[in-house]
Structure formats: structure tokens, C-alpha cells
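Interim report to the steering committee. The following record documents the input for Starch-binding associating with outer membrane (602 residues).
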Amino acid sequence: MQTLANHKTNSIGRVLIPCLLVFFSACNVLDKEPLDVIPETIVWNDEKLVDAYLTGAYLNTTVLHNEADDVHNSGKPFFSIFYVNNVSDESKSTSNFSGNAYQFKVNGLKINGGLLEYWERPYKVIRTLNEIIENLPSSTVSETFKTQKIAEARFLRAFNYFYMVKRYGGLPLILKVQQDTDPQEALYPKRNTEQEVYDFIIAEGKAILDDLPEIDDTNWGRPSRYAALALISRAALYAGSIAAYGEVDLGGTIGIERGQATRYYEASLEASSQIIDGGQFQLYNDNPDKTANFRELFLTKRNTEVIFAVQHDGSDKDYAGAGWAYDYFQCPFPNGWANGIHDAPYLEFAEAFEYIDGRPGTIDFDDLQGQLITTGELWAGKDPRFLATVYTQDTKWQGRNLDFYNGIRQEDGTVLTTGSYKGVLANGDQKVTQTGFGVLKYLDEKKDNGNSSTAGIFGSTQDFIVFRYAEILLNYAEAAYALGRDDDALDALNQVRKRAGISQLTSLTLARIQNERRVELAFEGHRYWDLRRWRIAEDYLSRNQSGIRYILDYTTRKFLVEKRLNLDGAVNPPIFEEQHYYFPITLARTANNPNLVENPGY
């Protein structure tokens, strides 16, 4: 992909004329000619330059990478790809570099913001896209090229606005290139209502459907009409749930009226139906081993479930000082910087996975007290997605079993927590003081994460999936359920469960749908936003989460299993308050633009 540099901007989204464009490919440098020395007519009449300019907008849409505010800038934390996991109830960050996100989990959001910010960067991208949309119609490039690139630009513009509106609520919709000579109300715009922004996103998605390719294998990584449908499916579902569960404030700047919920659910359902009925995608189901199958889904490029993904081939390591480092920070020990297991999933997350027969996945620790058990017995009958999503004690990794145990029970029954006993270490080789779990989803065992060179750190080849078919089925199920179409909802959700290898449901509740999303879409950037749009984050994100402790019995090599309490800290437990359903606009932005109204509670 390419990158865009040297735009001038202020904090309200006003972006002036670009001064310099630098194009980078995922594999090759395409062009380093400063754009300001090339006549503008040549830029818009040259398909390669236009495409490079558009590709720069893709690269700067960093939220394509799990909500990251940055992924390639060595001056910023390239591990921001994990922040959205760590502020949810999925995991605790254990990294030495984790403070930036975790402080918001225990201290809440303040008026100066700082969490998952996405304001200045997308408005820069939106200016680029507006330029393309305005200039291409009069250019001399082919009509086919012109039509598709304008549609791509409109898709990416709507995509950026969606990732902004779910953070801030209503915000200025800037749909033309701003000039210094524009009137003040255009240069310092007011916030549109939240409903207007969602309506724009959905309308744009519908408008470009016929201008995007069905599936373009020759241009993989660019949006097809199904990516646009997937955006509508997701955005309309969010709008429907905000209308159903949220409250309107600031005259509609935030919140959507209850009466609008049905039409949004219908829009989501219709978009999902078009993807389902199109027959171009299906749940990945190539391996009869259900655990291996779910793992392979995230490691197999261009498989039948992937609707839209950001591609990686390992060449990100060529960026100066940073790049795509997913494997390096999520992997078990050993790690080149002794900094693996960035995300440590909570026990409550692990317990969200049911058993194959449909029983709840909670563990009765009272029943296990004093009992020696193997990990095979502990997790027997668990949803196969569980051990495809997390690694824990005895997970096989690169030819060995991982050891998370903390303490060894000696032959006299006492537990030793330091040193060793008869040649056996008292603690395993993983981060034993944390939750007892790490994230296995997306991890490739073939990658050498012990290599602390640039290639070892930033050489991940894992594509990051933005839209996949299972999400569409779950979107369909939730929208259908909200519309009273229980049988349709049940059928869609059971398709996901059947692929997973767990029992089919005979009836549905909203809680069932919510939990299915929790386990199926874990660590894909959904959980935090789902809790917010359902307006249940005040409960789930204000809980002090737990972990699991394994104590190795020297004699039997089995384990005592205990529950670790208050892993987020007894003094400062997590907090999520009502105002946190919307991020603050921040003092800096409202100072720069007096027409921006701050969100309530800040």
C-alpha cells in the first residue's frame, strides 16, 4: 500500500491543499516524485498516479488494522492494534508498553481524550478522497477506471465516517474539498446529527454497489460490492441498536430516536441478505478438526469467508522503525524482546465459550478445590473455538507444551513458588502472574518471534480481516431477531454454531446472540463497540476481571486449579460511566472550532 504525507490540518477536520505525496507499495516504492512539482492535470489524467493517491488514503485509514490510530509510524506505538482489546472485557494488556490504553480502563475517559482517537487523521484522508471524487469526472482516464475509483473513494470515505461516528456521535460531514476562500461556516462547520452521519454512510454504500466489482481477484484488497454491503450491514446494525437502546441528547447530535430503529435493522438485514443470497462467500470449513479449522480461517489467505482484508506479506519491515508486528507481541515466550503475550484474556472471557453440548462454560472452582486434574480434563468438551482462540497451560506451540503454571506442589503437600523442586522449576516459562491465557487467533507458528531484528519484529504475514461471512450471519441474526423474525435469526446463528462444532439452539434470546458474537468475533475489534452500542458497557466494563492459576503437582504432573481475583487491581478497578458511550470531542478541538459542541458529561 502507499502512504500520504505532509498535509496541513487543524483539529476540526479543516484540511488545506496537500503539499507533498509520497507513494509506497506493500512490496515496492512506486513513486517518490513530489506531487507539488507535477502539473495537477497530469495527476488526474494519469491512472497510476490517481491509483497511488487513492492507495495513500487506504494506508492512512489505520483503523483497518483493528481500530489502530497508527501502525507504521515509529514515533507512535505500533502496538496500538491491541488497544481496543485491552479496553474491552476480552483481555488485560501485559506488555511493558501497555500503559497508553490501560489507563483509560481504570481511570475512565477525560475531556482531553486520548483513547483510540480518530479525528485529525480521517479528515486528512477524507480530503484526499473528496479531491478524487471531485476531479476524476473531468479527467481523461478511461470511464471504467473513473467509475471504479470514484466508487472506491466513496466507500473509503463512508468507512472513515463510520469509524468516527461510533466514537464521537454526530460530527461534521465534509463532502467537498475545503478552500481558504470558503465561508467561515464551511471552514468551521457544526456537527451533523448522529442520524445524519449514519444515513450518509448507508446511502453512500447503496449508491456505489453497481460501480464496484463483484469480486476482483486481480485487485485483491480493494473493496468489492460485497465489502460495501458488509459496511451497510455493520453500520445499519449499529444505528439500529443505538436507536433501540440509547438516548438522544444535544438536539440529536448524539443518539437516534427510538422510532428509527426498525428501518436501520431492516437496512442491515437487507444488506446481509444480499451477501448471503449472492453465494460468493461461505463459512470456512476445510478441516474436519473443528479447532484446527477455526485457527486456519485466520491463517489462510483469500479463503471463502473473507469479504475484505488488509494484506500483509512481511515486507512491512521495510518501513523505517515500525510495521505490522501482530505475531511478535501476541506470541508466547520466548520473544525477542521478552515481551510476548501482549493480550492476556480474562477467565470470564474463557468461560463465555460453552461446552459442545450447550452447557454454560463457567468453571465451578469450589468443586475443583483440592482436586488434581489435567488440562485435557479441565477443558474437555469445550467449544472448539476456545482452544483455537487462546493458548494456555499445555497448549502445543512450535513443538513444545506451553507452561503457565505458577507454583509446584512438593511431595509433602506444600507449594513452592520460587526456585525449583528436584530439578523441576517452580514456575512455567510463560507470564505466570497474569491471567493464564494468551491469544492464539491469527498467530502463525512458522514465524520466528525470537528474532529481535527488524524482520523478526515487523515481518508478520497475517492479513487482517475487516469483514468476514460469519459476522454477516451474526449481523443478520441480530437484525432479524430485533424485527421479530426469530426463525430466520435462529437459522443464521445456528450456521455459525454448526461450523464451530457445538449444539444447535432451538430458541433465541438477545443474550444468546450477544454471547455468540463475543466468542466468534473475539479479538477482531468488535467486543468493545458491541458493548457500547447495546448500552451495557457500564456493567461489563466496570467489572474487576479474573484469571486462572495452575499449580503443578510434582508427583502426578497434574494440576491444582485456582481462580485469580481482582486482576485489574483492587484499588482502581475498571470503570465505564454513562458519558463514555461517546468519546469527548476534546478541549483542543472545541477551542479550534467554537462551532463544535462538546459531548455531555465532559
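Residues 194-311+463-525 form a domain with the Serine Threonine Protein Phosphatase 5, Tetratricopeptide repeat fold (CATH 1.25.40.390). The committee is asked to note this result when reviewing the revised timeline.
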